From TrEMBL:
Gene name of this polypeptide: ilvA_10
A GO MF term: L-serine ammonia-lyase activity
Name this protein carries in UniProt: threonine ammonia-lyase
Cofactor requirement: pyridoxal 5'-phosphate
Similarity comment: Belongs to the serine/threonine dehydratase family.
């Protein structure tokens, strides 16, 4: 915006989420008398977003059989549903939301827009606590299929798009294509379009993306291991528990001479997800006490989700 608008645009970065930024913008518009341009909850915005459907059909030369649309506030979905219903009613439009921010699915289940109690902001482009009233009204009438994609699957898709296709996509941009890998079934001869809605991704974020992807794919696991405070305890653990293709990617341990046991945080990366069963079996057989960290534990959330 600063590049295009120059001195005419004052860019204000505020809030940790879309909802906080939108609340600030609404208050600022009321204070200054400026015109507020809603991101999704306005018929005019929805109409503008609906032109994406027109562009897709024009570029394809015909309407697709299936069209997957990422959903945050719902404006893009509502515009596409409206355009397709009038001109290509045979197209099956699928609404795709991240599992941790499925505000449309919650609204359809409740019979109206509701505030999500918990909001995962990783897929930040679609992390909206409450779907818009205007988009909801359209979706409630047309009842598109809705699917949720886990954030880890989105990360795997981001890496696939970058490594295979050379596409840098933000999490919300990889959301719709990720749905094709996590349960949306399509026919072999069907024309399928998945909207890649954005590429606003910082390269420094890829470390977290890789981490989440490995955990989602079942290749990375974390454990609390109680080591004996004797020389050679770590060597015994490596020999007895670690498989030939397993790799320790995290080891945090502080030796305390006044204790018999010392806990260590250990991260293990597997070559294949199927190697986990053998690893757990070796841990059970080992005299070393090992506790696998679950997704609900604070330590796990700190490591994988940054808190």
């Amino acid at each position: 915006m600063a590049e295009i608008g120059g001195d005419m645009v004052d860019v204000v970065l505020t809030g940790r989420t879309y909802d906080e930024a939108a609340a600030f913008a609404t208050a600022e518009a009321a204070r200054t008398g400026a015109t507020l341009v809603p991101a999704f909850d306005d018929p005019r915005t929805v109409i503008g977003q609906g032109t994406v459907a027109q562009e897709i059909v024009e570029q394809l030369g015909s309407a697709p059989d299936i069209l997957l649309v990422p959903v945050g506030g719902g404006g893009l979905l509502a515009g596409i549903l409206t355009w397709m219903r009038e001109r290509a009613p045979h197209t099956r439009v699928i609404a795709v939301e991240p599992t941790g921010a499925a505000s449309l699915a919650a609204a359809l289940a409740a019979g109206g827009p509701v505030d999500l109690e918990h909001l995962d902001t990783f897929v930040d482009g679609t992390a909206v606590r409450r779907v818009g009233d205007c988009p909801y009204a359209v979706a409630a009438r047309q009842r598109p299929m809705t699917v949720n994609v886990p954030e880890g699957a989105v990360c795997s898709e981001m890496l696939e798009m970058y490594q295979v296709d050379g596409i840098i996509a933000e999490p919300a941009g990889a959301l719709a294509t990720a749905a094709l890998r996590t349960g949306v079934m399509v026919g072999q001869d069907q024309t399928v379009v998945a909207i890649v809605s954005g590429g606003n991704n910082d390269v420094s974020r890829y470390a977290e993306v890789i981490e989440r992807s490995l955990v989602w794919e079942g290749r990375k696991h974390y454990f609390l291991v109680n080591f004996s405070q004797e020389p050679g305890a770590l060597r015994s653990f490596l020999d007895e528990v670690l498989g030939p293709d397993d790799d320790i990617v995290l080891f945090e341990y502080v030796k305390r001479n006044d204790r018999e046991l010392g806990p260590a945080l250990v991260g293990i990366e597997l070559s294949e997800p199927t190697d986990l069963a053998a690893l757990l079996a070796r841990m059970d057989a080992s005299p070393v006490e090992c506790e696998r960290l679950t997704a609900n534990s604070p330590a796990y959330r700190f490591l994988v989700a940054g808190g």
